[in-house]
Amino acid sequence: MANATIPGYPRIGKNRELKKALEGYWSGRIGADELLATAEDVRRDGWEAQAGAGLDLMPVNDFSLYDQVLDTTAMVGNV
């Protein structure tokens, strides 16, 4: 039997919550705590949507606050 999965899930949020939070953080309107709370909510919503869709395997390490390539580069020690 085949397992259902996807390579990743959109990380910006259903209503672009992460984009708005990042812009708010960069402009000084919100603090790091609020940005990270928004990121946590967006990740949780994504996981719940994927679980609700019946995926057998959930993608991991597919979330980034801004730049996935930079995050991956740092993760493998190239920065």
Short description:
With 79 residues, this protein is mostly helical. 51% of the residues lie in helices and 0% in strands. It has one domain.
Using DSSP, what is the number of strands? 0
Number of self-contained structural domains? 1
Q: Average pLDDT across residues? A: 93
Low-confidence stretches: none
Structural class of the helix and strand makeup? Answer: mainly alpha
Q: Count the helices. How many?
A: 3
Q: Which percent range describes the beta-strand content?
A: under 5%
Radius of gyration: 14 Å
Principal-axis shape: flat
What fraction, in percent, of the residue positions are helical?
40-55%
User: What are the secondary-structure elements, in order, as H or E?
Assistant: HHH
Describe the biggest sheet? none
Cα separation of the termini? 41 Å
Can you describe this structure?
Helices cover 51% and strands 0% of the residues. The protein is an all-alpha fold and 79 residues long. The protein has one domain. The longest helix is centred in the middle third of the chain and has 21 residues, at 32-52.
Keywords:
mainly alpha, single chain
Show the helix and strand layout.
Elements: H1 17-27, H2 32-52, H3 68-75
Helix pairs in contact: 1-2
